Amino acid sequence: MNINWFKYSSPQTFYPLAGRMIPWFAWAASIFAVIGLYISFFIAPTDFQQGEAYRIIFVHVPAAWMSMFIYMVMAGWAALGLSLNARLPAMMAQALAPTGAIFTLLALVTGSFWGKPMWGAWWVWDARLTSELILLFLYLGFIALQSSIDDPRKADKAGALLALVGVVNVPIIYFSVKWWNTLHQGSTISMGAAPKMVTTMLLGMLLMALAFWMYTIAVALMRVRCIMLERERASDWVKERSLSAGGNA
Amino acid sequence: MQWSSWSAFFDMGGYAFYVWFSFGLTALCIVWEILALRKRSAVALNLAKLLAQDK
Prior knowledge:
The complex is a heterodimer of chains A (249) and B (55).
Chain A: H1 11-43, H2 57-84, H3 87-119, H4 127-148, H5 152-166, H6 169-179, H7 199-231, H8 236-244
Helix pairs in contact in A: 1-7, 2-3, 2-5, 2-7, 3-4, 3-5, 3-7, 4-5, 4-6
Chain B: H1 6-11, H2 16-54
């Protein structure tokens, strides 16, 4: 394949491309979510230990996976932006941060609502929970730092450095259940070992994770389009776009 | 099928509050994020339009 990637690396060509991609990812997310929710609530059996409360797993684990995955992707875009000194990768990093923060918050809150009936506590200062809370602070710190610097190129650089330093936290979250004695249960799925759960439960979880993944791409593309319009509002391509967008587009 | 009736489904084996809160909050966050982005996009386009018409 011989695609000219540089052609798509400028905001004015990426803007319409992103616009055309959004509906596809939105549809994929919806389809995965419908099938995933159906399996989560109607096919997956009751857990013999936790009863029906375990069904929180179908949002909790995918949200927790996404919180870590989005951070890695965000840091990757930030590193690319820093090393190439390019606008688009930095905008992608900026577009991912709020969605990552939302998934981190959801992982923490749904975990809390699972912990209360199972452990008897909303919160414990356990290694897994604490490191996930630090992830939320890293996302919020990244967002706050970027918005506190007026010059967008300087904001990109500062944000990228914070994002890269914070990467060290992701393996800590992931391996925390192995490295320390945590109240949080171990991984349900680990690479190289047979999963310790019923296939339908696993399938529901994977489908929900796919739905969240497609959703993340769709909203990140929506947000990166907003960021492009906001940051390049003085440029000719944004003016042309806005005039051709009609009524109250 | 795991449920004897719809009320058994909504009761979630006595864990209704915890289960439905988790799923409800997730749905709420998703809807909020999409609506907020649509609004942000409309505001950005309108602002760009005003700037473009200025000249």
